[in-house]
Amino acid sequence: MNPPHFFRPLLGACSASVLFFAGCATAPETRTIDSKGPEALNTASINSQDWASAADQLVQSLLTSNALDRVRTQPAVLAVDRIINNTTLSVDTDLLIKKIRVALTQTGKVAVTNTMGLGERAVVASEAAEMEEMTTGKKQKLKAPDFTLYGKLIQQTDRAKSVTQNTYTFQMSLVDVKSGLTVWEEEREIAKQTKRSSVGW
Amino acid sequence: MKNFSLRIPVVSRGRALLAVAVGLLAGCATNVNTVERAQPQAAPTYIADKRVVTDNTLAGMVRVVAINQSTVSGNLLKVQATIENRKNSLRTLNYKFEWIDRDGMAINSPNETWKSVQLQGRETTTIATVAINPRAVDFVLKLRE
């Protein structure tokens, strides 16, 4: 049975509002993106693209310096020292260091020692070496590092009117263990400006 | 009452509009002037390149002037592209280098990521990367807005 003429507009309005609210109730859309691509969210802090860019620039600089070629036998043994985080961000410095380690290891010019410094699973590696000593009765010959790598993250915040600028500095140094000399140093900066909306609560 | 109107010749009005437009554009421009050695001492090894353009707007905005290569740390390929902003305003360009080995296989190095560079108006700058894998012999440079 068709509804009366006077009832039709009301029915149409109700249908439209139902469709409108049904549209609002849809599940949030999630999509997979390239975490190091331009689609990555750009925030006032260091995002995934920034970490990747900083790591790549530092690796490029280190390889171009030829500092790793000073060792007699390759691969050079590298011990990763402390990475000091002097930013207000609570970040895992492995976001930078791991990328650098992976890149350097793939060059074939570096082997990262796990028995000192921030070597991954350093405890397990040490225990494994001890167990090997116990079972074989031979003292294990651990390779002393040729180089140590240390770094620092610094943040400087500047404000002018409604604009806030966060400048993140990634500093890194490579020290020749035998001479104690710094054979390579580099720093890279990423500056981010955030403009606060003039109307806000 | 006598009507009064200011009559400006058409040519003068055109000039005035042009002057205003030039003034506005000059105000917005962030162009870069450069000075360099007249007889460069550097002797880059330029690469003959092949280009595929799928975005004409981007190609009109940024031009790859030249690509040169060198070897660092003994056996690692380094590639540098000289790029030019063809517009009069600040532009952001995203780029990525990908590496290919002798067999034509993609290497997928961890440093093959999109990076961004900002170019002032009419600025020419360089973007570079080092292949972290000694097997890399070829590259693909990808550009996007």
UniProtKB/TrEMBL annotation, chain A:
A Pfam cross-reference name: LpoB
Keyword presence, Signal: yes
Keywords for this protein: Signal
Signal peptide coordinates: 1-27
Q: What is this protein called?
A: Penicillin-binding protein activator LpoB
Origin, by domain of life? Bacteria
From TrEMBL, chain B:
Q: Which UniProt keywords apply?
A: Signal
Q: Which residues form the signal peptide?
A: 1-21
What domain of life is recorded for the organism?
A: Bacteria
Q: Which Gene3D superfamilies match?
A: 2.60.40.3230
Q: Please state what the protein is called.
A: YcfL family protein
